[in-house]
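Dissemination and training. As part of the outreach component of the grant, students in the summer workshop were shown how a complex can be specified as a set of sequence lines and then modelled as a single object. The example used during the hands-on session is reproduced here so that future cohorts can follow it. Participants entered these lines:
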Amino acid sequence: MNRADEMLNLAAMRDQYLQQQLLGDRRAALQFIEAALRDGASVDEVRCRIVQDAQREIGRLWQEDRITIAQEHMATAISQLALAHLFQRSEFRRRVNKKVVIACVPGEHHEFPARLLADALEVQGYDVRFLGADVPLDSLMHSIETETPHVVALSVTMLFHLPALRAAVAAVRALKNPELLVAIGGSPFESSPSLAADMGADVVATDAAGFISQLTQKLGTSA
Amino acid sequence: MISWDGESREFVLVVDARGTVTDRDPRTAAKLKLSPGESFLARAVPGTEQKLANFLERARKQPLTNVELSLTADGKAITCSFHAKPDGPDRVALLGSWLPEEYSRSLQQVQESMEEVANLNRRVVVQKTALEKTLSELEDSNKGITVLHQELEDKAEVLQRTAEVRSRVVANVSHEFRTPLHSILGLSRLMLDGIDGELNSEQRKQLQFIRTSAEELSAMVDDLLDLAAAEAGKVVMRPEKFLVSDFVSALRGTLRPLLPAGGAVDLVFVDPPPELQMETDQSKLGQVLRNLVSNALKFTERGTVEVSVDTRRDDVIFKVRDTGIGIAAEHFERIFEEFGQVDGAIQSRVKGTGLGLPLSRRLAELLGGVLTVESEVGKGSVFTVRVPRVHAEVRELSDLEARPLDPNLPQVLVVEDDRKTIFIYEKYLANAGFQVVPARSIADAERFLGQMQPAAILLDIMLDGESSWNFLARLKRDPATHDIPVLVVTVTNKEQKARALGADEFWLKPVDQDRLTRKLRALRAEEDARVLIIDDDDRARYLMTRFLENGPYELIEAGSGAAGIEAAREHRPNVILLDFVLQDMTAFDVLDELKSDPLTRPIPVIVVTSLDLDQQERDRLLQQTEVILSKESLSREIAIRRIRDALRKADVGSNRTNLLSS
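and obtained this result:
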């Protein structure tokens, strides 16, 4: 990462990408991503260090009232496109025969971080079922029943949704399936790690890379 | 006045420094359910409290416009846009408007659609990746198959090479066997004839055993050589027309003596269909049937061996049926393998080379047919030979001959007796736009010339020996034909070169005594003819002298080529017997020497050899033919010049009478 930081200056790239996003120029944003790949950035680096970080910056900018909701939506749409593009450019690893169901908790409409995780896992060879934003609890439980995954990953982006997360984790735990790992993730755990402690999850992560490395360890799937 | 408060998206309120509502309009009360004394700050959606606090802090100092905030109302999050102005030192006046819900919903819908499209794209990508993987796996297996195929080809090549080496070894070893065998056969014959004194009966008996053993060995070597030649494709077909009834009679005559004494076995020849005519290689067909019948007799202790002939469409079917020991089905293929005899009491008593059936099968195939067996142990066997009534080569040629001439195509008269060579000409000439008129003898050619005016004549100079030269001479003398270009073809085959150089005969060893004396008598009628024998094999020379010593001949021996030439000059023999393979020089060299000396040139030379000649000599014509025929224009000048060149090359310019009359 140091090498990449020095040689590629990913932070500067993120700023440039962010600028294209806020200008609403999706073509330029995609061209920029292509250029980054050409310059030697890996698909993972572009996904996490450029797109994901830019997306976090978008959230911060709204908080600071520097952008409007409309701009946030536009920027997110561009990042969705970027993710899809990166997915296409990924080098897929061999299948590891582990299934992960990913969902946003009820009320959580920010599906972007979960989407990014789904892509990253898919590329790593996991079998991924991405349920999307605002998944009602009974839909989640139904998916777990029919898909029989090894892991359930639940995503939140705002503290506001923590009660829903807590309820979802409890519901999954109530299945009493020792084989099923419960993972939670989202930016709320970044600012206050203690929040995660009493959630009762097996894996807590604040970004895709951390999530994958923990999962790899728990499942014994060598990366 | 009508109140629009219920429909308005705007609301007004005033908050103090702690964020508590101090004043508000009715719309605020209705939408946000906020009353004075309640905390506006507490309405921030969790996670956005700081943004709201910051906003109020700044608004106390300066007016702000279009600030978006997320608030909760009735437990739901709504997004509002605020204008704010300081209202006195510690208070802030706010004008809020909430974004129309349908806009938010539309935005949400658009975003979700966009996400779905992106997800669809992902699925396509995953499928594409899977497809690519399958494709690359397919390519890999394809590569694997290619590699396997190559290995198979390599193996096949190795096998073929092995087979070739094997045939060559067999052929060479057989030759090595042949020479001493011929000595044994010849010498035992001499002794049995009592030329050097009578033998007592015991000696006769012993010698007879030696002779019989040598004959058996000789038969085996001949079979081996035949088989090797057949497998190497070196067998030349000599098809001829014959009546099957005549063929069967001849077969009966040669096979009768094989019947064992005692009458336990009958040999029956069913009369073939009358007037049934075949055109194929009679001697090879006879070889196959003799083999089958003698086999049947060997393995039949009592009962019948029956030979029958039948026809089916254009094929003739010969069946050899016996009531012998039979063959188990699992051995049907084995018996056609070399030395593949079946083990058993009777089998081991029976003498055989172990090559008869494999050779017969190969010969049947060369005749364009098949040899098959049906049998039951203890009941007997039926061997079936099915061959085309007319050999394919013959049929093709008769098709060629029967073809009506196309007046628009220039015709080329091909005077050539070898069918294969005619086909080669036909192929090349047809491609060049000519029409071949085959004449298989000089007589045919002369008959055709009476009816047509060919554009050119291709003449095999070896055809009918001298008469082809006379034919050429006649063509050139006759004003009607002297302008027709004649392309003379010569072949550099050993035998033919030897003949061209003046050898009168070319014989395969072993030399038959009767044939030798007859030939010499014909060559030289008068008494006391001098015969020079040039051979470096003492035994061969000895045999030859013994064969001839009682005749009216004066024999001169030479043990090398050089000695032979010397002897020829000194003694001027009436005829020379020349071994084809000498240690010191080739027969060609010897012939060259003899023919270049006026003293020895007229002496007839008979070349004797134990070497099998390469029967594929004619194929070499192909190269020569190509050279002549690939030229687009067969113009007369060029053609005539080429004939002269060809004649000069064959060393038959001015002195050709000398060359050929000896």
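The longest helix of chain B spans residues 101-192. Students were then asked to discuss how this feature might be tested experimentally.
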